[in-house]
Design a protein that fits this description.
- It is built from eleven helices and eleven strands.
- Helix 1 packs across helix 2.
- By secondary structure, it is an alpha/beta fold.
Amino acid sequence: MARKSLISRVGDVDIRLLEIFRVVVSCGGFTAAEFELNIGRSTISKHISDLETRLGLKLCHRGPAGFSVTSDGAHVLEAADELFFAIEQFQESLDEAHKSLTGKIKIAFFDQSSTNPQAKVYEGLRRFRDLAPGVVLDLSIEPPNVIEEGVINGKFNLGIVPLHRNSPMLNYHPLYSEDMRLYCGQGHPLFDTAQQARTLQDLTEHTYAGLSFNSPNMMVHQKLKLRKSAYVQNEEALKILVMSGHYLGFLPRHSAEPLMQDGLIHEVNNSSANFTTTMASIVRKSASAGRRLNTLLQCLHDAHLT
């Protein structure tokens, strides 16, 4: 049975405990959250217990059976997300009143932008940093579906994802493109003759590794009817599978070139298997971007015009 809440007014202590709870849920448990929070598991457990006492609710199950969130915990988590989004909005309102920009911007990317010569994200961030040295940047690498969901629910302020389907809840701003090719690794039956033109039927005779979520990668492999037998969450993992010599896989050309130069992978010659992806920044449509986020969007846009 739920206990009586000890909270009459939300204060700094409650916000801190809610923040810890969000991280624990995001990490999937106390052990995984230790590194993220930089505090010990016993301390994390005490903080969660303190929060449960203050709220009068059981938030999660923890023990030998593993970690799981209760229905009350899920409700509190949803309310906490709304609270932290409101705090972000308040910070943005303060930015409007002050000449200098402050606060934090959380940005999520999808994989290999640093080696793409067309990607000038670093230049956009450089310009933004020059204009807003008081803003703390929080960057992470995530799958596109996680980024889109995170921007919608307020976990991220801005994401950079491949365009493949538009959500009515997001605004999209195209930035740069990424050329994708099909590759195989040493030991693969096509490796020694990869330069020979291959038919689609040739490709379907071999196993294929691809991304496990809705993306241009998935759309192309379904169109070509490739035989998918391995799933990955990011392109780094996909490289490893291609290099194993057992799978075909799509990789960005800029990312694959060093491996080709070392003779570890070869491009498979089939024009139907070539495609280009447009990468775009995304922000939540229903949210007021504010001066801080608008400044970052403008810096990213300007960087990709040069």
